[in-house]
Amino acid sequence: MEPCRLCPRACGADRESGRTGFCGAGACPRVFRWGPHFGEEPPLVGEHGSGCVFFSRCTMKCLYCQNSPWSWNGGGEDITIPRLTGIFRELAEKDRCSNWNLVSPTPYLPFIREAVAPLLAEGVRLPFVWNSSGYEAVETLEAYADLCDTALFDLRYANSETALRASAAPGYVEAARAAIRWAYCRPRAASAVPPLIVRILVLPGLAEEAIESLAWIATELSPDVPVSIMSQFTPVYRALDTPPFNRKVTQEEYESVTEAAADFGFENGWIQGYEAADPALALLGENMPAGHGAVGRTAE
To answer: What is the mean pLDDT of residues 276-284?
Structure first.
């Protein structure tokens, strides 16, 4: 953090001196909310929910961000390290959550490690879920690998110009693919929870990019990678004035992506129903469109 090079921007902000970079994160953790969350992928939820901690600020600026009050605008509370320790303790001991789900944690990784250290010393430990846009630096992932038992990464774009226009994220495609490859290649002990889940949010007018992302995963990694294909895009915030993000995804667009997932052979993961009002996730291989089985041809 001195200077800050935690994300791929490596902006060099001297946060300890009160100077902030692109994300706006300062010299202490800022948290918007925390608590058990039951809307994550099934292996992460368990009986008592995933213990989400929603950190303020973000290394991206998505036009359509549903979390803009805290990701763009910094809503939340600056807290001390002992208070953050207390939050993690509450999620583990009081709420009995299945994991510590770190939502957009990158600007605060040094604080998170410091906060969990006394708990780990006491033997209080939950698996860590690193829940992010995928816009990560491999050097940072390596340095903080102890905070990543499961990588829950988005793969939003397959075109760098789209990532810059929609999320102000230069080099997103290369960074996110490198981060996903890093998570895929890490040696892991056997576990019921996968070490990597890739979320594919289908965006309006960009179904082909979602398909290209699936093709990359299938060919460069494996169609065995668990993917979570999501239809829940809703035009909010600055998307309302920015085509094509000012509309919902059409059923035709969404089904073109789910059909491609079948054709590429994906069968591990989940698929949302088309209606965004019903965000429930069903098993991918058992819920393909008519005419497509759980296993299809591999990507070419």
So the answer is: 64
